[in-house]
Amino acid sequence: MLARAPAKAAPELELKFQLGAGALEALEGSLFPRAQAKVSQLHATYFDTPGHALRDQGFSLRVRRKGETFTQTLKHRDGGALFQRDEWETRVGGADLDLDVLAGTPAAAAIAGAPLAPAFTVEVERRIHVWSSDAAQIEVSLDTGAVVAGERRDPIAELELELLAGPPQALFDLARQLMDVAPLILAFESKAERGYRLVGHDGLAALKAQRNAVGPKTAVAPAFQVTMRGALVQVAGNADLLRRANNPDALHQLRVGLRRLRAGLSVFKAILDAEGFNRFRAETRWLAGELSDARDIDVFLQKAAVRDEIEENDGRAAFFRALRIAQAEAYERAVDAVGSPRFRALLLDVAEWVEAGAWRHLDDAASRRLREGPVTVLAAPVLAQLDQRLRRRSRRFLEIDAAARHDLRKQAKKLRYAAAFFAEAFTEHPKRRARFVAALRALQDHLGELNDMAVARSVALKAVGKRNGELAFAAGLEVGRLTEAEAAVMDAADRAFKAYRKVKPFWPSPDGRNEDLNLSGRRLNRA
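The chain above was modelled as a monomer; its predicted structure follows.
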């Protein structure tokens, strides 16, 4: 039996990248020659309960074999820590778990006495280099191998940068240097998370938004970081799924993550530096534009009548062939966008800005007080302004045109995201909060239907192009079927607006005399 050290939590700060085509060869050929690496073969078995209780609580538990040494490691990442995790590591005597060691960690409560068994394995060859500068020391790991669950395998080709000494900024500086040498894509999914996806616990479906870990005592600056980190995870994860296959759900959730990221920029604008805000608003607008056509065609096809419902004819068949061609072209554009150097740079640049950007050092007194104060000080006026604006502009809903309705929909969506960001920051009226969110959800559903009808017309026009005759006639019939209930949906949306205007806000009224709150409101107006 090997001697073991007591399990102890230690912070781990790292960046992880997927290696694009040719990246490994480029890195080994220029900066990190294989001959100079410390090479090891690693075999790790991950354990969990039959119901994956550890995974549900944010833990991963493994025993890793390296040569003749076995190490038991427990890791935990909460909703707010994107690049930092708690880690408990202990040498053990073999491939089996040491339950006595585990009993002294927070995972014991999550397990609650349930049996533990192997869930999947990770097999990699790891090549380690240590990169040093005057300011920092960073461990560079190149991993190749696979995650294995029964007959299923998911290949691994990753680069990890772990900060051993020095400031966090050094990680991003090195990452940017390496991205100039090889195609690297910032990734947030650990090997454990990939394993759980492989065994089906997390499914192979698109990544949806997770609950925002912002409470009433959270300061504004970390609340912004938590919000943006969550959106980044959703964007990066679904972009990876989209690159693997033309998955409509992944595309949709990628766009949701992108909208959440853009909403975070707008909602927290009062504490942000203008240069960073304007830059990332523009870059995210570019990406949204590259994805929009594919999503619009997906929605059209999902809502279109199936062949059994309507008699097929040559014109209708030709129209749908044209639509499928347009869909393939739109997906090619979307996949090209998320595989581009511009997208790879966007992920890293946003992550760096969120963690160490100029916004953290704005030295005017009002910005500093707001940044360091409780999130409720910012959230209440932001929510109030978004709410009041939507209530006021929705009163003449039936009189406005499609463009104005689309603008209202965007306002409602921004308010819903803000309500989700700050939901746990205001705990006094949970029932009122639930009613408010339910009213917004119902409103968005109807506005979404109306938007789909408006978009259907433009989708059909693009697919038909300059052609006319039977093809154009078939397109017109299809659009007519998709929009025939427009008047009824308009009435339903108007009723939803009236119901929404009756619900009470779940946040307290902001104090208009507070200069910092006024600062927040003025900047939101300009967003």
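The mean pLDDT is 88.
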